[in-house]
Amino acid sequence: MCLRCYKTARKVGGAAHARRIWDQQQSIGRPDGHGRFGILDADQDGQQVLCHECGRWVRGLGAHAWMAHGISAADYRAAHGLARGQSLSAPATRATQSQLARARVGSAGWRRLEAARDPHAAAAARDFTTPMAAATRRDAAPRAARNGEAARKGRVRVCPVCGARWCPLPGGYQRTTCGATDCLRTLAARNARAAAQRRTPPIDQDRAARLQDARGEALVAEARKVHGAGHSLAQIAAVLGIGLATAHRLVTGGAVPRAYRTPPATRDAGTRRKENPASAAADQG
């Protein structure tokens, strides 16, 4: 098992489940009853397969496991490490069934099926916006009510992230998304940001005006004061009209945005002398 599969198994069933799958994969090929764990042995002709429980050679283990040992095919696969999609029939039997299925293509029954099928009607029946689908839903709802089964509601929900649409069941869990992992994470992040904005008090007009009028180091001091009062960086960025990353650099690193730096005309002579030693020497001369 690779690291990715191990993480997936651990996410699904926990560490014990992942460890159990790991142990099963490490046990593939080891003796298991009359056969080998995780392997379905067949004879040389491919006519029969070996039963792990009793050691008999049979053409199909599905019926044999139930009739002789009282276990279902799914339980047999799980007990002996076989994949859930593993066929329990002999290779020759599988080949014969596949050949018979291919032989039906082009037969008289196949031609009758092609003549009777209507792809457009089938597609329209799957689309709930067509009148045919609406009539089908109207007919299915009373029938489901008579049978005591749940029926789809008439309203349609739309996923706010990907736009997928579905009809919820009455009495069931009324989910807000389509259920995809990416949609759930995106919606959770949106809700978290909205909740944080609701908890954060808005910046009053006077403080916002002082923040917009400040320049240079005064802007850094005012921004840090506003942030220390409980306001978020997003609010500071919205007031100043800058990006969130720029607001973060302003508050944490003291990097003044270009639009809020001190204009050269408003700087005093001492500041000019520090920035330009040549002009300072000329002033002294």
UniProtKB/TrEMBL annotation:
Pfam families the UniProt entry points to: ROS_MUCR
Domain of life: Bacteria
Ranges for region Disordered: 258-285
Gene Ontology terms, MF aspect: DNA binding; zinc ion binding
One example of a Gene Ontology biological process annotation: regulation of DNA-templated transcription
UniProt family annotation: Belongs to the ros/MucR family.
Protein name per the record: Uncharacterized protein
Biological source species: Mangrovactinospora gilvigrisea
